[in-house]
Design goal:
Layout (H helix, E strand, L loop, with lengths): L4 H15 L8 H8 L3 H13 L3 E4 L5 E4 L8 H9 L6 H4 L14 H15 L4 H10 L7
Antiparallel strand pairs: 1-2
Helix pairs in contact: 1-2, 1-3, 1-4, 1-7
Length: about 140
């Protein structure tokens, strides 16, 4: 499994918003500069995050984006699934109802289930708040 730039950037954008939380909206230009993401690509990702209700926007000269919820309410899994779709390592785990004709005899199915459980046990328990905490432990300053 490989996370695309879209998923990685979405996570960085959400983390940036959490770290920059000053009560006022954060401009796309500022986030794009800090995260070294093109503004055009970032706008596409922000649109997805906005439509899903992960961020809210305010228009105008003092406008920008901010998190719609507390950082503790977002898991890494939520953000990655929004931008990446399923995180299942193989299709047969993603679409169990359709099933694979080899499912009953598949020797590797247990391996794929264990891998899926391991990934989910990380991404569904680590929150944006945890990433903020890890960032401060590393001494990263995102003061605006």
């Amino acid at each position: 499994m490989k996370i695309s730039t879209r998923g990685r950037y979405a996570l960085r954008i959400m983390l940036d918003l959490a770290l920059a939380d000053s009560g006022s909206p954060v401009r796309v230009k500022d986030i794009a500069g800090r995260q070294e993401i093109s503004e055009k690509y970032m706008e596409q990702i922000m649109s997805v995050l906005n439509k899903a209700g992960f961020v809210r926007s305010i228009r105008g000269p003092q406008g920008g984006y901010f998190l719609a919820k507390n950082p503790s309410e977002y898991t890494v899994g939520m953000i990655l699934r929004l931008t990446e779709g399923s995180l299942a390592p193989v299709d047969c785990l993603e679409y169990e109802e359709q099933g694979c004709t080899r499912r009953d005899d598949c020797v590797t199915l247990l391996l794929w289930k264990k891998l899926d459980e391991a990934v989910r046990s990380v991404v569904d328990t680590v929150t944006l708040e945890d990433l903020v905490s890890w960032s401060s432990e590393r001494g990263q300053d995102y003061s605006i």
